[in-house]
Amino acid sequence: MKPTKVLVADDHDLVREGICKLLELYEDIKVVGEAGDGLETVKGVRDHFPDLVLLDLNMPRMGGITAIKKIKEISPGIKVLILTIHDEEEYVYEVIRSGAEGYIQKDVKPEELKRAIDKVIKGDKVFPRSTENEVREVVNEKYEVCELSSREQEVLELLAQGMSNKQIAQELFISEKTVKNHVSNILRKLSVNDRTQAVIVALKRGLVSLT
């Protein structure tokens, strides 16, 4: 059986080299390339056409989310396993919607990393247990179209960037009162109680992106 071809992408040299040396210990894995940023990752995928890309989420020149989408454009069959320090649900949702097959944290044990790679290669999804229900919902559930106005969509996108009402008002050249009205409409239409929930739901539904 041919070994699994893996491209390792991480902007920290020591981390990347450590992962490569670890993977090279396994006879059924072959590291075919390394990348230190998002653009190098996409180029490496084109050059080496790996079976799996082990990708850090925070990458210079091109973020991990954008890199996932580019990889999937090159070939939907190439698996992507995110290895990151982040554990926020918003990132998990965005990773799923971008097409990645897995999401694990960098503090996993070597055998857990190997197990995750094997699962992804076999066609399984690998995500944190704490988000299993949410992952199932994002992958399987069909959402009803949420009819936001163009202005509400703009406000929602700025909310996702972490802007306050005052900052949104300045960005869109409208009053804070108008922003509050838009936020209230967004919360009502998304059936949520606060801004954080609105952003999470919007990410799950693909209404906004972190990139």
Automatic annotation (TrEMBL):
This protein is called Stage 0 sporulation protein A homolog
GO BP of this protein = phosphorelay signal transduction system; regulation of DNA-templated transcription
PANTHER family according to UniProt = TWO-COMPONENT RESPONSE REGULATOR
Query: What SUPFAM superfamilies does UniProt report for this protein, alphabetically?
Result: C-terminal effector domain of the bipartite response regulators, CheY-like
User: Which branch of life, at top level?
Assistant: Bacteria
Q: Tell me, what does this protein do in biology?
A: May play the central regulatory role in sporulation. It may be an element of the effector pathway responsible for the activation of sporulation genes in response to nutritional stress. Spo0A may act in concert with spo0H (a sigma factor) to control the expression of some genes that are critical to the sporulation process.
- Please list the residue ranges annotated as the Response regulatory domain: 5-121
What keywords are annotated for this sequence in UniProt? DNA-binding, Phosphoprotein, Transcription, Transcription regulation
